[in-house]
Design brief:
about 50% helix; single chain; elongated; mainly alpha; about 170 residues
Amino acid sequence: MKPPSTPDPAFSEAPDTERAPAAGRVRMVRAAVPSPVRRAAPEARAAGAPRTGGAPVAADARRGTLGRQVVIFAVGVVAAVILVAAITGDRGYLDVRRQKAMAAKLQAETASLHQENSRLISEVRALRTNSYVIEKLAREKLGYARPGEITFRFPPTEPPVKPTAPPRPPGGG
């Protein structure tokens, strides 16, 4: 336990007005006492001695402002680097867009393959069960005919080839 100390002159005793005055309680209130300012003697100030107390020197103010500007610039550079990485980096915005486009393309291709697979499955079922489909295929692909039928075969027609102009010799002649 601390021994009682001498009262601080900055504090004064005032009755506690917040509580019942009849209780006789005393509250410590900080008095508005100006702090002593150390000043150099007038002759010392004239000789160029540094000032003590008073307003800060302009160089101190500039140093604080410069430090703040450096911190703001550094935060800006870091934010710009993070933004560029978020847009262009691995798993960045552009990469995610590219992957979504690829996923949509693959889904469309998968749907197309499912449709083709369904068509081929129905064609296999028809070939296994329907004799008319088998006969049609034999007539078209293999050129088969029933006994007594006459089959006419024509050569396939190819589109006419356009004649092209002969190339000019180099030299402009």
